[in-house]
Structures are given as C-alpha cells and as structure tokens.
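User: what does the whole thing look like in 3D?
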Amino acid sequence: MAAEDALVAAARAAQSRAHAPYSKYHVGAALEAEDGRIFAGCNVENASYGLTICAERVAAGSAVTAGAKRFRRVVIVTDSDPPGSPCGACRQFLAEFGTDIEVEAVGPRATRRWRLSELLPATFDKEALDT
Ligand code: THU
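Assistant: Here's the predicted 3D structure for the full assembly of 131 residues, as structure tokens:
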C-alpha cells in the first residue's frame, strides 16, 4: 500500500485526540497552507453542547494564529461511511480564506472530494460588506 499522504496522516492523528464524549463522533481535520505547512484540529465538545467547536474550525484557527491564511487543501477524517462532509458553519468559516480550496472527506472505506465552491455556492463574503 502506498504511504498515506501527510495531510491525511495529520487529520487522523488529530481525530485520535477528539474530545467528543457526548456525540462520540470523532473528527480530525488538517489544512495544508500554500507554503506547505500543515495545521490540524479535532472537534472539542462541551457539557454546554452548543459551545462545541468543529475540527475544521479548530484547524483554521490554529493556521491563522501561525500566520497562514492561504490554503490548498483540507482533509476531514471521520468514521462515517460515506465520509462526513464539513458542516455548513465550517464551509462558511473556511470560505473566508477562499473557495478554491480542495476539500477531501476521508472515511473508513471511501474518500470524497470537492472544491469548497461546490459545497458552498453563492458564499457570503467580504464583497457583500464592501457595497
Ligand atoms: N463536527 C465536526 O467536527 N465537523 C463537522 O464538519 C461536522 C460536525 C463535530 C461536531 C460534534 O462534535 C460532532 O462532530 C457531532 O456533530
């Protein structure tokens, strides 16, 4: 078997650290910046359920904190079959940094791929605020 790609490996490692005692749905995400750096995140749930943060947003926050805002690809690893795609809030959150990014959802048996622009057409973005 070919070596697993570094981005998928980073998302898997993050998934193993998910804090999901309520849903028991473990998610790992990894973003590849244009400069090659990788930023990972896992979902972090809370006893006050609505405070939960998705893996993708944790990864994006980590990237922005490190000064990375231009991304090539994001991988989301779940145990769902077919693999879980990013929720609407995460689509919008990632779209802040561009909708050309490749989105890859990896599950136990299959991988699904899209451009973010396909998952979130007619994005609300800063252009709307400028008019
Ligand atoms: N979750 C994510 O981490 N990313 C998504 O895009 C969808 C949902 C998390 C939130 C919650 O901890 C669990 O999955 C079940 O909704």
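In plain terms: Strands lie at 28-33, 38-42, 71-77, 102-106, 111-115. Residues 20, 23, 25, 27, 43, 45, 52, 54-56, 86-87, 90 surround tetrahydrodeoxyuridine (CB under 6 Å).
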